[in-house]
Amino acid sequence: MQEIIKRLKSVQNRLLLDLPERLRPFFKTIRTTNRAIIITGARGTGKTTFMLTQLQDKKYFYLSADHPIAATVPLYDLVEAIFLEGYEGVFIDEIHYAVDWSKHLKALYDSFPHKIIWGSDSSSVVMRGGIADLSRRFVYTHIPLLSLREYIYLETGDELQVINPYNEDRKNVYKILKKINILKWFRDYMEHGFRPLYTGNIADYQEKVMNTIVKSMTSDIPFLVPQLSQNHFRFMNAVVGHLAVSNIPTLSINSLCKKWGIGKEKLYQLLNAMEQTNVIRLIRKKNDISLYSIGAKIFLYEPSVYGFFDGNIGNIRESYAAGISMESKRKVFASDNEPEYDFLIDKLKIEVGGKKKKSKKADFVLRDGVDIPDGIVIPLWMLGFEY
Predict the structure, then answer these.
(1) Is the distance from CB of 70 to CB of 4 less than 8 angstroms?
(2) Which pTM value belongs to this model?
(3) Looking at residues 265-287, what average pLDDT do you find?
(4) What's the longest Cα–Cα distance across the chain?
(5) What average pLDDT does the structure give for the chain?
């Protein structure tokens, strides 16, 4: 056990050497006063980086449950040995890879009442497996996709202020416009700015994002959907490809079942799992509470993926407007009346489009390609400054 701890400590030290110079501003909003926290979020959004930053100057230990060495012993035994070595806290990455992780985590929480115990997971997979045991003990926090405001900070070092796109003093907006070429930064962000993976090479960013999508489907979804076959993985890959190039953001359930030889129940399970693992977003109407629903619109989780395939510009805009609003913790629903508006965001009727888009009967129209708000017209970029 001591040899396992020693080798995992070496992994931790190497990761600490690779921490970025600038960290996501969102990290400063995460409450770290709780001793028991579960951190969720899409792959590549910075969960590991955040936990590693909390190690500095503290007697905490980091490990990833998907590391082959960590998998050789039960989670409880490993963490118990780490605590007995004198560590005050343990951060466990990719926690759902540990066998019976929720039982072990609960037992550790109860057995070591003065120790810090954090876990992280690359999706809401973790929420499914053990929330009944852990909800009274652990606080859940979600790390969203990178916002435009954060992307600009990571690229330039300029930390601009947070704004409310629907109710903001215009003076604050003008300060931002005077400081930076916002439309230039917004174009760059939409192309490669949703995860802190960009290293100056767009092709490299695309490859990394596609790898995270593949890993979500092949490594995370099997924890949610039992008895997966190669045909199921090919189906999910085809769904991503179809949504990336389709002009209409939806799927035909009957035709998919027939084409892929998959029953409806299994198909719904797969699509739901793709939503839970942050591969796609299902935008439902407000009163749609059915377990067997694919919503009114289906978007890829990250809007930039459409650009990898020269996707439909309308889908890119709507995917961004709906997705970044959800990341900002707003409630987003598909319209009950498409001729009047596109989305219901909180209680606001929202229309989304290009620089000449009409408002129809919406409360606000979000326009791409414009920089200054005007009446009910809100530039699309402003949604990226909510956090």
Answers:
(1) yes
(2) 0.93
(3) 94
(4) 67
(5) 94
Domains of the chain: 2-142 (3.40.50.300), 148-385 (no CATH)
| The token pair that represents 378 in the structure block | 């809100």
Each residue of 355-386: pLDDT tens digit?
A: 999 999 999 999 999 999 999 999 999 999 99
